[in-house]
Every structure is written in structure tokens, then in C-alpha cells.
């Protein structure tokens, strides 16, 4: 089997998409569930300004990322793919969080060949640089832009905040198990 280059987002993709909710509920006196997060932009859900949100993130993101739980089944599936493929993580996290991120990967025993922290949601140049064959994402507009720019399959991990229409090479999956079934079929077809 030909080695493929898998690109993976971190937050909301390999980590549980509900990771932020307990922190939001505590600090903003809310009672949110994942189903309440129907938009990626949390400022409109929380009814706060961008400045207030980023001030809150600056105070809390290290702790949140340090304690983030893995999405169900992500670890075992990613570990299995790591046996034959390269795993390159491209995240919007800012570079000052690199040590926390790398420690989290080590503590969770999540395999990787490279972690790229682009510090913004636009991941196009990083994906171009790494010449990826497939990408895993939870942010709708990122998934669409990546699929259209590179004509590669993008696995969109289904969440309430990403349910807008998608092009045919964006594959919405409800679980890591469902993603694995699609990817394993894609891998078999690519060697024919």
C-alpha cells in the first residue's frame, strides 16, 4: 500500500467537540450543550465581543488544551493509520501553545510526524507545503476551502456548528468509526 499523507485538525476533530463547553458554562454562567453550538463563532452564542472572547481565550486556552479529551475512537483509529501513513496535524492554535500541545500528544500517546501551528483558521498554505492526500476537519468553511483548493477528500467530523451544504469531496461522518470505514475504502481504491 502506498503511504499517504494524512492532515488532521486538532480541536473538535481529534479532540471531543464538546471540550470547551464546561469552561464556557462555568465562566459565562451558561447551561450550553453541544447541540446549542449551532455556529462556529462563539461570540454570537455567548453574546460577547471578539475582544472579550479573545481575552477569555488568553486566560483559559492553555488549561483547556491541556485537559482536552480525545474524541471517541480517535486514538485507536489514528494509531492504526500511523502504521502505514504519515500523520501531519495542522491547527489554528497559536504558536505559543506548542509546548502544551506537544505535551498533550505525548500524554495521550497520539502518534504524529509533524504538528504545524498556523495561528489562524486559514490552513491552505500549510496544506500546500505538506502535500497532503486527505484532511480531517470540523470547521465547515475550512473543509470546503481545502477540498476545493486541492481536490482532495476532506472528512468533516459532524457537529451542530458545521451543518451547511458541502461539495462532493467533503465527506460528513458522524464518528471516527464512520470516518475509518470511508478512509479504508478510499485507501483500497487508491491502490487499484
From TrEMBL:
SUPFAM superfamilies: HAD-like. One of its GO terms (molecular function) is hydrolase activity. Keywords: Hydrolase. Its EC number is 3.1.3.-. The keyword Electron transport does not apply. InterPro entries: 5_3-deoxyribonucleotidase-like, HAD-like_sf, HAD_sf, Nucleotidase_putative. It comes from the Bacteria. Belongs to the 5'(3')-deoxyribonucleotidase family. This is Nucleotidase.
